[in-house]
Amino acid sequence: MTSFSTDAPVLVTGATGYVAGWLVKELLDAGITVHAAVRDPDRKDKVAHLQEIAAGSPGTLRFFRADLLEEGSYAEAMAGCAIVFHTASPFTTSVKDPQRELVEPAVKGTRSVLETATRTASVKRVVVTSSCAAIYTDAVDCLKAPGGKLTEEVWNTTASLEYQPYSFSKTLAEQEAWKIARAQDRFELVTVNPSLVIGPALNARPTSESFNIVRQMGDGTMKRGAPKLGLGVVDVRDLARAHMEAGFREEAEGRHIISGHDTNILELGKALIEKYGDRYPVPRQSLPKWIVWLVGPIVGGISRKFVTNNVDVKWRADNAKSKRALGVTYRPMKTSMEEMFQQMIDTGVFGK
């Protein structure tokens, strides 16, 4: 177990986010002063869960107003901080203008935070929440990777503004981070590259895309079956722990794939059968690829290229570096899915 220094404050950007919430909790539980950068500190519905955590922990929480697209807006929040955790970035797949809604906030935000870090004497390390999306676009890319598995050496070369713009935005943002980091010697850069994040949220109204997927497993959308769409998943709490280790372990360096399980959408749904199958229409069987290919573009706005490259294609990634270099352990996928689903029931997502 790493011992975390509580001497200097740390900054968390996008502190109200799904992943950031658990990271803030870890930091506060360790007795650390957290500078939480948020768009609007006065929005009680956005910050109440963090205030509640702070009230019961030995750490101290301070809010700062900051915006990804406002240059220099993180300077005040960053002052005096030894570590910067940059988690803020849009995660959605339904956008009208990918350049404006995904690429610009991701790249400009990363540039703004890291350039501020180069001017802030106290900052020793920056941890950027990147994504496995910066490593691959489609599950079929795993087959082309060395040994058929994604590793930290692999970069996404197949996404574009027209195809999978979210993956494109994450790739450009991480590349921008490394470009800025290599041009200075004030701080070290470490990145964490999670797969699809699952597990309960600390905020009662999470906006992460993964909740949209799991909602469909309980509202009847997938009652006839779910596609074997290859992907990786990681519990949000394991990911928060990985951030802590990436920030405080002196020897941590480079990129880290943070993914607990190689799986697919159907297997995620089947993890819910034992506990919820008698009450909710959770998926039990595979939706044939040809059906997904046929109706995907009409019903779900999923392109046929995406179906071809991901459905019935196994996703594989090598998470050995995260275990070795950061000491990350991964909880069972079934546990993560059950606790996430139960929270959605408790908050009335399925109207029961």
UniProtKB/TrEMBL annotation:
Any one GO molecular-function label of the UniProt entry: oxidoreductase activity, acting on the CH-OH group of donors, NAD or NADP as acceptor
Pfam family, one: Epimerase
InterPro entries: Epimerase_deHydtase (IPR001509), NAD(P)-bd_dom_sf (IPR036291), NAD(P)_dehydrat-like (IPR050425)
Start and end residues of each NAD-dependent epimerase/dehydratase domain: 10-245
Presence of the UniProt keyword Oxidoreductase in the record: yes
Protein name, UniProt field: Short chain dehydrogenase
Record's signal peptide: none
Keyword Oxidoreductase: yes
Gene3D superfamilies linked: NAD(P)-binding Rossmann-like Domain (3.40.50.720)
Alphabetical UniProt keywords: Oxidoreductase
